[in-house]
Specification:
About 80% of the residues lie in helices and about 0% in strands. It is mainly alpha-helical.
């Protein structure tokens, strides 16, 4: 804290921006075992270890199940103002588990390590960053969340490219070792120096007020669970994770199945990530200026365009076009719900609320990965899975139009 206070005292920049950098780097390195990074390893690991797509998908889904189980207790830790320690511990454990992926020789070790890394990626590292950001920013909450997920998107670019380079030059085992080391080197020190629970942790008086009292409408968990808005956001976000995870995790394999090489697949995934980063910032600005309902429903429109483009992808140019749409939609999936939860339900019980609702996202991600893997193993193609996702996105667009801002009854639980 001594160094952090020195930085705060000597800088004219609001310390929340330093917090955002620390939280952003946590999200960046979480991609070491994120869907896109992991997708680069599926083919070489499958070929050497004789794993089926269903087996690999099952390992990823086991991580989503572990994330769902851990979401509620981790959410309670966030509200007990232990987010800083959870994030620091998550960085260390992510580095160790990612490095240990180089020793996988059978399905048991695969399931254990993928479950750990996917849980860290999905729950503490993702939710923790958004909870911290919501506490440090009110007036520019959308913008701050957009920047936060732009860091995440940068990781989506960096880690698949690094994984591809390491796999081609050193093999998949050494690739995992290098990625594990990078996780700790990039994120641990900034997290220790910059991440604090709230402005009051460093003696900063937080006087900014949101317009129209937005964000001060603090709900208890009990009251939030009684609102239709909570269920629309949580179910809608779960569905977004359902088809985005089902596509993202299998994207490199899908592109190679369509005749696009591993190197070009890495390029397409990088375009996806760049589009996600730009989209995250754009969606954040939209959330600061537009009714959340329209922002949320627009994410489903972008998803429709992305999926239908991907279905008809047979060359690198269409793959890049689909990747632009898909990345922009994913930026909305990451940013809009995070802003919506904080603006609709406040920050006093935000950790618990996110912990209770996050299983919808993890369940969606687990099912989506399995659906794509099983359909591929049965039919030898991902097309049917993608058509299912397209139809569901149309239904969810209509569902999202019923979203509205709830009114707090001011319970104190």
């Amino acid at each position: 804290m001594f160094i952090s206070n020195k930085i705060r005292q000597k800088s004219n920049i609001y310390f929340g921006w330093y917090v955002l950098i620390g939280a952003g780097l946590v999200q960046l390195v979480s991609n070491a075992s994120g869907s896109l990074g992991l997708s680069m390893f599926i083919v070489p690991m499958k070929n050497e270890l004789n794993f089926s797509m269903t087996l690999f998908s099952g390992a990823i889904s086991s991580g989503s199940i572990l994330a769902a189980i851990s979401a509620i207790p981790i959410g309670f830790l966030f509200d007990l103002k232990k987010t800083r320690y959870v994030l620091i511990f998550s960085i260390i454990l992510m580095g160790i588990a990612t490095y240990a992926m180089s020793y996988v020789n059978g399905w048991i070790s695969l399931y254990i390590l993928v479950a750990i890394t996917r849980m860290l990626f999905s729950t503490p590292m993702m939710i923790g960053g958004s909870v911290i950001t919501a506490k440090w920013f009110v007036v520019e909450r959308g913008k701050a969340n957009g920047i936060l997920y732009a860091f995440h998107s940068a990781g989506m670019i960096i880690f698949p490219v690094l994984a591809s380079i390491f796999i081609i030059n050193f093999g998949w085992r050494q690739a995992w070792e290098y990625l594990g080391i990078i996780v700790v080197l990039v994120a641990l020190v900034p997290a220790i120096l910059f991440i604090y629970e709230e402005p009051e942790s460093l003696g900063i008086k937080f006087s900014a007020k949101p317009k129209d009292d937005e964000g001060n409408n603090n709900f208890s968990v009990q009251d939030a669970l009684k609102t239709k808005s909570l269920w629309i956001i949580s179910i809608g976000t779960g569905i977004l994770y359902f088809f985005h995870s089902g596509i993202n995790t299998h994207q490199a394999a899908f592109l190679q199945d369509r005749g696009i090489s591993l190197g070009l697949s890495s390029l397409v995934i990088s375009v996806n990530a760049i589009s996600t980063g730009i989209g995250s910032i754009v969606w954040g600005l939209i959330c600061d200026r537009v009714n959340i309902k329209y922002a949320f429903s627009s994410v489903f429109i972008c998803s429709m365009l992305a999926i239908i483009s991907l279905i008809f992808t047979y060359n690198i140019f269409l793959a890049i076009l689909a990747s632009v749409f898909f990345g922009f939609a994913m930026g909305g999936m990451l940013t809009v719900p995070s802003v919506a939860y904080a603006n609709f339900f406040g920050v006093n019980s935000l950790g618990k609320i996110r912990g209770i609702t996050h299983p919808f996202s993890t369940a969606g991600a687990a099912i989506g990965v399995m659906v794509s893997g099983i359909i591929f193993d049965i039919y030898g193609s991902y097309s049917l899975a993608f058509w299912i996702y397209f139809i569901i996105s149309i239904v969810m667009f209509v569902f999202s139009l019923f979203l509205s801002k709830p009114i707090s009854t001011k319970s104190q639980f």
